[in-house]
Amino acid sequence: MISKIVGENTSQIEVLNISKHGFWLLLQDQEYFLSFKDFPWFKEAKITDILQVEWLHPSHLYWPGLDVDLEVESIKSPEKYPLVQRL
Q1: Alpha-carbon distance 47 to 57, whole Å?
Q2: In sequence order, what are the residues at sequence separation of 6 or more whose Cβ sits closer than 8 angstroms to the Cβ of residue 36?
Q3: DSSP secondary-structure letter at 73?
Q4: Which of 2, 55, 78, 80 is the most exposed place for a label (fewest CB within 10 A)?
Q5: How far is it, in rounded angstroms, from Cα 52 to Cα 66?
Q6: Distance CA 69, CA 73 (A)
Q7: What CA–CA distance (Å, rounded) separates 65 from 68?
Q8: How far is CA 52 from the centre of its chain?
Q9: What Cα–Cα distance (Å) separates residue 45 from each residue in 6, 25, 57, 67?
Q10: pLDDT (tens digit, 9 = 90+) per residue, 8-25?
C-alpha cells in the first residue's frame, strides 16, 4: 500500500481563515475571500457551519448547516451578482 506524502493537501475545498469581515475559501488551488457584505448569510453563522462546506458539482457549493447554495462563479466575481432588488 502506498500512502500520500505527509503534509500534502488532499482536500479540494477548505475554509482557511475566518475574520470579522468574512472568510477565505480554498477551492482547488485558488483562494477566494467571501466578505460578509457580499455574502450576508454567513455573518451570524456558527464557525462550525461555515467550515462544513461541500463541493457538490464543479460549479456548486453547499453549506448544509446553513442551507446555503452558491455558484462558484458568484464567489469568483461577486460584483456580477449584487444583492440588490430591482423593481
Answers
A1: 23
A2: 21, 22, 42, 43
A3: H
A4: 2
A5: 9
A6: 12
A7: 8
A8: 9
A9: 32, 15, 23, 11
A10: 445 589 999 999 999 999
Q: Within 10 Å of residue 56's Cβ, how many Cβ atoms?
A: 10
13, 51 Cβ separation under 8 angstroms: no
Strand 54-57 and strand 22-27: pairing? unpaired
Q: Which residues 6+ apart lie within 8 Å of 4 measured at CB?
A: 10
Q: Which three cell numbers stand for residue 66?
A: 446553513
Amino acid type, 39: F
Long-range CB pairs of 29-38 (<8 Å, 24+ gap) are 32/75, 32/76, 34/75, 34/78, 35/78, 38/78, 38/83
pTM of the model: 0.79
Strand boundaries in 1-87, DSSP class E: 13-18, 22-27, 30-35, 54-57, 60-63, 68-71
